[in-house]
């Protein structure tokens, strides 16, 4: 048995980080983000990072923490509307941004993990997304070529793991995490629970351990990205 577990996030990242690296960070909004590994990245002081992630966290949490410390040089993202510091840096020319339609970003990551260097999609044709990219006609329709994405490091979040790195995700957290696990040259997973070898039903494993080099167990805050409430109406009130 190969035990891939590390005591904490800093140890799990030890020897993997370098300035100018490309990092994939899993999650959707604040759901399924590798909170502890992001904190360890911040503490490491690594800089000039290109981050591939659906979004950039929020101010003061998630990837927003790395924006505050100016450790991110470029974002390859889809949705970034919840982060004021992201907006400020981008509009000031301090942060590079490569925007992607959300489905295109997901497929670029999946393609990278599958060893597919490029693919054609109709999404984005005739828009700024297609500028400078190859167009090709299929059956009279135009498609734009997009390239697969890989990273020096993927940091992902799962629900459960066994010591060999087999992963199970829970509900919405099963978003960008599985495809990023396959697209990182090295993948480090943080999980809520590590179970014994053989305790995971093989039919329920979402990411096989072959894609995961290191893992650690951590506590998770699980913030709500945008809380919307309304005044409670009590019985008998007008």
Explain this structure to me?
The chain is of the alpha/beta class and 238 residues long. It has a single domain (5-115, 149-217), classed as Glutaconate Coenzyme A-transferase. The protein is 20% helix and 24% strand. It is built from 6 helices and 12 strands. Helix 5 (102-114) packs parallel to helix 6. The mean pLDDT is 93.
Please summarize what this structure is.
With 238 residues, the protein is of the alpha/beta class. The chain is built from six helices and twelve strands. It is globular.
By CATH reckoning, the class would read Alpha Beta
Helix content estimate: 10-25%
H/E order of the elements? EHEHEHEHEHEEEEEHEE
Q: Output the number of helix runs.
A: 6
Sheet with the most strands?
9 strands, mixed
* Computed CA radius of gyration, to the nearest angstrom: 19 Å
Fold-level CATH name? Glutaconate Coenzyme A-transferase
β content, as a range? 15-25%
pLDDT < 50 runs, ≥5 residues? none
Could you give the count of β-strands?
A: 12
Q: Which structural class do you get from the secondary structure elements?
A: alpha/beta
Give the end-to-end Cα distance, rounded to a whole number of Å. Answer: 66 Å
Fourth-level CATH superfamily:
Glutaconate Coenzyme A-transferase
* Count of distinct structural domains: 1
Name the average pLDDT: 93
| CATH architecture grouping | 3-Layer(aba) Sandwich
Shape: globular
């Amino acid at each position: 048995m190969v035990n891939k577990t590390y005591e904490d996030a800093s140890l799990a990242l030890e020897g993997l980080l370098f300035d100018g690296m490309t990092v994939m960070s899993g999650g959707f909004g604040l759901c399924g983000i590798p909170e502890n590994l992001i904190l360890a990245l911040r503490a490491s002081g690594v800089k000039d990072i290109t981050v591939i992630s659906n979004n950039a966290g929020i101010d003061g949490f998630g990837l927003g923490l790395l924006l505050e410390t100016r450790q991110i040089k470029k974002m390859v993202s889809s949705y970034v509307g919840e982060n004021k510091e992201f907006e400020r840096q981008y509009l000031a020319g301090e942060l590079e941004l490569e925007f992607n339609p959300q489905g295109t970003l997901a497929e670029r990551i999946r393609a990278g993990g599958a060893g597919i260097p490029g693919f054609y999609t109709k999404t984005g044709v005739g828009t700024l997304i297609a500028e400078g990219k190859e167009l090709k006609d299929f059956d009279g329709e135009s498609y734009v070529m997009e390239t697969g994405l890989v990273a020096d490091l993927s940091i992902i979040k799962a629900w459960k793991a066994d010591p060999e790195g087999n992963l199970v995700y829970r509900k919405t957290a099963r978003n960008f995490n599985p495809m990023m696990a396959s697209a990182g040259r090295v993948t480090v997973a943080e999980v809520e629970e590590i179970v014994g070898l053989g305790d995971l039903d093989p039919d329920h494993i979402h990411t096989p351990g072959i894609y995961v080099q290191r893992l650690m167990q951590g506590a998770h805050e699980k913030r709500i990205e945008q809380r919307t409430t309304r005044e409670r109406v009590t019985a008998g009130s007008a």
